[in-house]
Please model this.
Amino acid sequence: MRNKFLPQQVLEDKDSDNIMRKLDETDRKILTALVDDGRITNSELAEQVGLSKSPCWQRVKRLEDDGVIEGYTAQINSEQLGISEVIFCEISLDHHDEDVLENFEARMSEMPEILEVYLMTGEYDYLIKVAASGTTGYEAFLREKLFRIPGLRQTRSSFALKRVKQVQAFVP
Model:
């Protein structure tokens, strides 16, 4: 079974050719514009990248079909919802057999407070990004959810003081 948190070769098409070799400057302009504003209309996008509407729509459709564009989402201001803290938690597991990893990853996907999960190299096994309503909310998350996962050996948490940069994607 393929580990869902390991890097996937999402840039491969059905013929196993690297899509990056097929992306031209116009595709990159389209991707950059969509990263900046996922709600841009096709007409505005076409004008911005120098295409007519139909070829622009066809390129976006191809990028979606090829898996380069995975979807569109809204950016939510968590503080407006009372979620004032972002915490990064380093996690070490007792064992590293496939069942333990699969169980841990399945549990991570069940917790809506967890925004991101990375399988890591180095001193700890996973790095998770958690949203919480202050230290009390994070303590409740730890006690009621995270610490109840079997096989957890150690955690270390760091509270973010300020987000300095946030981008949705890197377009080479």
